[in-house]
């Protein structure tokens, strides 16, 4: 019996978000959700990359912040639906209020991220601010949605 494969549908669409760095990508510290807004945790992922690597907008957005926060340069983007993504430490190449598209260059990676085991790491975070502040694993933004399993086709024993 031959089972026809279903055509690609909307569930196979491209994700709204992309990696903020070009390959190769190495996650050197994973996301650790804080128990509460002010509890300990790691509110993003650290991606190892060479200093000077291009940092790209992970999705279409408006630049919410582009400049220093405490002692480090940070870019914060506001995406549709109230999602915010953050990128640090980044030599800023955008300005507040600027519209960016997924994949647009927003800056270059600087060395000096605390705890980074490589010469430089991009800390990439995600936050949903409403109805309550919820930190999200930014790697989950890369998903296209639920996985659909399709029947396997046996090409070694064709059915006649």
Would you spell out the secondary-structure blueprint of this structure?
Blueprint: E1 26-29, E2 45-48, E3 54-56, E4 61-69, E5 72-78, E6 83-88, E7 90-92, E8 99-100, E9 105-109, E10 121-128, E11 134-136
Antiparallel strand pairs: 1-2, 2-10, 3-9, 4-5, 4-8, 5-6, 6-10, 7-9, 10-11
Structure commentary:
It is a single chain. With 160 residues, the chain is mainly beta. It has strands at residues 26-29, 45-48, 54-56, 61-69, 72-78, 83-88, 90-92, 99-100, 105-109, 121-128, 134-136. The radius of gyration is 19 Å and the shape is globular. Strand 10 and strand 11 (134-136) form a beta hairpin. Residues 1-12 have low confidence and may be disordered. It has no helices and eleven strands. The strands form two sheets. Strands 1, 2, 4, 5, 6, 8, 10 and 11 form an eight-stranded antiparallel β-sheet that branches. A three-stranded antiparallel β-sheet has the order 3-9-7, with no helix packed on it.
């Amino acid at each position: 019996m031959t089972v026809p494969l279903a055509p690609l549908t909307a569930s196979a669409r491209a994700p709204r978000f992309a990696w903020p760095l070009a390959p190769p990508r190495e996650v050197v510290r994973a996301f650790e959700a804080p128990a509460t807004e002010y509890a300990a945790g790691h509110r993003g992922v650290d991606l190892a990359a060479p200093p000077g690597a291009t940092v790209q907008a992970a999705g279409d957005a408006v630049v919410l912040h582009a400049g220093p926060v405490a002692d480090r340069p940070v870019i914060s983007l506001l995406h549709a639906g109230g999602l915010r993504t953050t990128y640090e430490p980044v030599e800023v190449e955008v300005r507040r209020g600027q519209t960016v598209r997924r994949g647009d260059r927003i800056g270059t990676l600087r060395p000096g991220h605390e705890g980074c085991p490589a010469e430089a790491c991009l800390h990439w975070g995600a936050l949903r601010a409403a109805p309550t502040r919820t930190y999200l694993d930014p790697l989950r933004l890369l998903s296209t949605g639920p996985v659909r399993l399709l029947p396997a086709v046996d090409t070694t024993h064709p059915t006649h």
